[in-house]
Every structure is written in structure tokens, then in C-alpha cells.
Amino acid sequence: MTGLVVIGLLAGCAGRPKGVLLPVDISAPVPGSSTVDMAVATTRQRSAERGEMFTGERARAIDFANIVVSIPPDNARKIGDVQWPRKLPGNPATDFVTVKAEDMDLGQAKAWFNSKIKQSPKRQALVFIHGFNNRFEDAVYRFAQIVHDSDAKVVPILFTWPSRGSVLAYGYDRESTNYSRDALELLLTALADDPNVDEVSILAHSMGNMVALEALRQMAIRDKRVPAKIKNVMLASPDVDVDVFRRMMVDIGPTGPRMTLFVSRDDRALQVSRRVWGNVERLGQIDVTQEPYASEMTAEGITVIDLTKLRTDDKLNHAKFAASPEVVQLIGTRLASGQTMTDSHVALGDKLVAVTTGAAASVGTAAGLIVTAPVAVLDAQTRDTYDDQVRAWGKSLQDNASSTGDLLTPQTGVRY
Known about the structure:
The chain is an alpha/beta fold. It contains 15 helices and 9 strands. A 9-stranded mixed β-sheet has the order 3-2-1-5-4-6-7-8-9, sandwiched between helices. Helix 3 (136-150) packs across helix 11, helix 5 packs parallel to helix 6 (242-252) and helix 14 (366-378) runs antiparallel to helix 15. The termini are far apart.
């Protein structure tokens, strides 16, 4: 009976339609709708599918695109949510839809940016760096929502690194942050060097904080300080080892940008990450009322917003937060009201693996794939991640066998 119930539930589940980045014609815009025009800088590999644009694999060099997202009228949506279309083409009256998606080279990206920054009231740019388990379209639509709902008058730039969009790919995603830090540094340096720019703000979420902090650290080491135009860095639920963060702050130095840290002590994702990484506290989950964190944050001049407390008390600001710069306050107010910052895919099969085998044991292992297999038959979202992981695991086995053969052949003559 239990099995039949589960099968019935799974049969009703469907994944999001693929290809949501294929532009929709809105020659007659819906009254009350609006658009977010963003630049994209990415270390992801280009996709052969136009409606996907970029995959979760790693490219050899940084790439660029220009995407415009149409957002339905406020009376047709819940503020803070992304209305994903249930089928294609999406309906601009009720769904987020893409109205423009064009590749850009470096020269075109510079021209787009300089045109937009000159139109910005305060010549401010906002760079968003997504977290773990995000596909390209997840990051695009979520960033469009953040920019629109915060009403921040900034030029939006999405920096998106290679994430395979599966909880089974935690290790791959983690290494992709290291892979992408140089590219982010190049982007931030270019923005800071642009004479048309007055201010750069950074918003990083979850694992994306590793990319952001590593890039800032490298800039400080190379140039003896972070460029003065990079004024605000928002660290939202950072999946960062707190000891590693301490060392990073030493390198970034006392003249670095203003930092706002958003923490939540009941963040389940960070609880899992803590267990995976040696039971060391994650920065996004610290209790800032306790030592040594209270004194350390004060000494570093870091504004800390405890989202757990703020949601419970239904307060959107406290004294320090209310005095924060405009962009930080606008975005932070949205976060403090309980709005999410991710649209990552968490398929039923992924959840099952995390519960039954633990995240650490399931990453890229045969056990995780075996547990997930029955669910993948019925759940479309699990099928997507499952197929990717089977291919990755098979390649890993092939590489390991080849390496073992190379090691053994000179001594034993045995070939594999």
C-alpha cells in the first residue's frame, strides 16, 4: 500500500519545462509587467540548445551574454517568488519569460555595460553570485526577481559558475568555485577600473561566497588592497568554513569593502555541509551573540543580520542594518522578510539519497545512484540529475581504471 501511494505521488510530479531561455515575442507588452536587463559573465560551457544557453560543465575561458527577463504584474504574482512557466512558451501575464537572450563577446559586453551604467542614477553595479545546485536558468530568473523586487537602481551583472544543478554533485560544484575565482577577479577588476563606475556591490549566496571571497582575497594580495569602488559585499548564508573566513579576512585587510553577513542558525543545508567538512562551523550558521564571534564581527566591522531572529520577531531591520547603504538595505530587507535566494533543483531522488545515505556518502557514488534509480523512473526532475550523474560516475570509473592500468603496467605487465 505504501509503495502504491508513493508511486501515485511521484506520477503526479513533473519537472520544469526545458528551454525557458528561448525568447518569447512580447511585441504587445502586458500592462503592469516589467523587464530586467542583465549582463551575464560565466565560466560555464556553452550549450548546443538555444533555450539552455549554458550547461553545468566548465568552459576554458570567461564568456558573456545579455538576457532580458519579463516579470508579470505584481497583482499576478507573490513578491519574492519566481513564477516558472508550466509549459512553453510561457505567458508574460503570469510567468517569468525571456524576451532576449544573446551571446556577447568581450567588446560587446563592455559596450552594453557602459551604456547602462551611464543611465544608472548613481552609476552603481550589482554583481550576483549564486550558490550550490543551481542551473543556469535558475540563476538568471532568481537574479531577475531579486533586482526587480528590491527595486535597487543598479546595473545587474550575473556571475555564474559551473554548477551541475544536483545535490549529488556537491564535490564538483565545490571545485568549480575554485575554478572560477580568477574569472570573477577579472570581472571585478574591469568594473573597478571603468571610469564610468562609481560603486560596485556584490551579493553572494551559499557556496558562491567562496568564489567571491577568494576573488577579493586575490585582489588584496596582488594590489595590497581591494579596489575602493567595491564598497559593499553581502554574504548571504555563506557555505564557508569559519576558520578559512578568518584567514581570508586577514588577507583582505582592514581597508576592504563594507561587509554584511546574513546568518541563519536553522539553515539545514549548512548543517549538512558542516558534517561533510569535518564538523567545523559554517560562517552562515554562527551564533553572533556568542563568543568568539560577537567580538570578532565587531572588530572586523562586519554588520551581521540574524535572519532566524528577524523572521521570528517579524522585524525587517535593526539599528546597524537600518544605517546600511541603500543597495544593501533594499536587498537585505527582502532577505530579512524570509524571501529565498535560490531556485535550485532538489529532485525527489536527490532528497531520498540525502536522507538515506547522507550527503557526503552520496556524492558521485554508486550507492547514491542505486538508491535514486527507482525514483528516476517516475520523477522527471530526478531523471535529469540522474542521467548527468550516471555519465559523470561512468567517466570517473573509466579514468580510475585507466590510471590504475598505467600504474600497474610497468611493474606487472598487466593491462586493464
